[in-house]
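User: For my dataset I need records formatted as: sequence, then structure tokens, nothing else. Please produce one.
Assistant:
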Amino acid sequence: MRLKFPVLAMAAVAALAGCVEPTAAPQTQPARAVPTATDEARYARVVSRMEPVIESECRARVSAQVNCDFAIILDDDPRKGANAYQTLDRSGRPILAFTTQILPDFQNDDELAFVLGHEAAHHIAGHIAQTRSTAVTGALLGGALAVVLGGGQSAVDIGVDLGSTVGARAYSKDHELEADRLGAILTQRSGYDALRGAQFFERIPDPGDRFLGTHPPNDQRIAVVTETVAGL
């Protein structure tokens, strides 16, 4: 039997290119309220104030080849629940998206500003590219291990899938903490209070320190923000 390992590896690359989410905004429980005009006004106000700071910091920190022209959007897809995330469009333009369901969860401008800064930091730090790279490496190693152990095509498929998952999550907690640090800086430099913004973590489920989890414990994230602000 001829194993289709190279084809599977390429398939993994294609899938990761379209759906990797080092997005890592704090996950909240399903929204309990419909966004109000006040929520939408807060969103517009914070975006207007932070966008030029985010883009300026991006250009100062990355190479000229990195796109710093952010598109900040509201995502009204009800299937995504309450969330905020960062991704790229087909041209490589960075997208910072808030689902409409998350807007009522913010108690003040500082919380929304901090989450916006956090998502922007993922792009500035290059987390999507890093996650893709580790996921592809994991997929290749997982498939190769299955071949070495004498597995057939189904074993290779499983090895690729498992390897890509482990690879994608290998540095996700580190990425989250790095985004918290830079997000706090972006928040402060936009005139908002990152410490007050990080109180958002106090009201969301704590992921703890699960093996292969994607987010670090909430108290660790708050500590990182506190340390960062103290050092500014």
